[in-house]
Design brief:
Oligomer: homodimer
Order of helices and strands of chain A: HHHEHHEEH
Number of helices of chain A: 6
Strand content of chain A: 5-15%
Strand order of the largest sheet of chain A: 1-3-2
CATH topology of chain A: Arc Repressor Mutant, subunit A
Helix content of chain A: 55-70%
Shape of chain A: elongated
Number of strands of chain A: 3
DNA sequence: TTTTTAACTTTATAGTGTAAAGTAATTAAG
DNA sequence: CTTAATTACTTTACACTATAAAGTTAAAAA
């Protein structure tokens, strides 16, 4: 890589668009689940789908709610409290944006696959 | 979603394969950069490509090295110390695995796109 | 009426990302 | 020739945050 290349591509791999709130594994898990169920999912369903503990799920849902990515509906189902979580419109858009960025990461990686197949050397370059 | 569905898909969205070490944004950035340059990148090149500060890059490189995902070569270039970072074979494989999981996230998300296009309702479901 | 279960929420803690400060070695300035 | 500045990092301290353990409320069972 020569200096003029650097100039052109500074920040090329910074992945700015990878929104921290969505990128966190547990929350990505939650959002991706909700993305598949536009009618929403119950607390316990999410817990199972995402393999999260109660406290953990509760905290992450609170964070997602605060960011207006998810909305919660509290009700009762046979005399038991039930919480339904759903993506907001905003959350849906932000997730789609996030995924667009992810696609770039995947695309970048395909380059690696090609290079390794073409038998590139693994020696350090000389000074 | 009915209970038998839950049974079948518990952990469906847990994304276990999203290795924490690689998933972290700054490190994903570093690894994706290195993936594009099999001959390795210099400290300052990485700094630019990933828009990281010195300290930040240094720490993350140390973590990646400890995990045997990246290897470092210390040398000098016109009397200045230079550090060259490169993906290890192990790192390359782990990154490819990681990307495979990412592809699943992207695939999951395409479902959302389809649903939103088919005009699904946004009302909470009745108890 | 006491205990247990269900469905969460709150809190304490351990872990981690980040930038500021520190180090060492070279070059430039006075 | 001594001091200041630059380069190329590394170390440290702090602020943040993910997580699970403990706590809460209410219904159901014993």
């Amino acid at each position: 890589m020569n200096p003029s290349d650097l100039e052109k591509t500074a920040g090329r791999y910074a992945y700015d668009g990878l929104d921290r709130i969505i990128h966190e594994k547990a929350r990505l898990s939650i959002i991706a689940s909700l993305a598949g169920y536009s009618e929403g999912l119950l607390f316990n369903e999410l817990k199972e789908l995402c393999s999260l503990t109660d406290g953990n799920l509760s905290r992450h849902l609170a964070i997602l709610q605060e960011a207006d990515l998810v909305q919660m509906w509290k009700g009762t189902r046979n005399k038991r409290p039930q919480t339904l979580a759903r993506l907001t419109e905003h959350g849906r858009r932000r997730f789609l944006e996030y995924v667009t960025r992810l696609e770039r990461v995947v695309a970048d990686a395909s380059q690696l696959t090609r290079q390794s197949e073409s038998g590139a050397t693994l020696r350090p370059r000389t000074a």
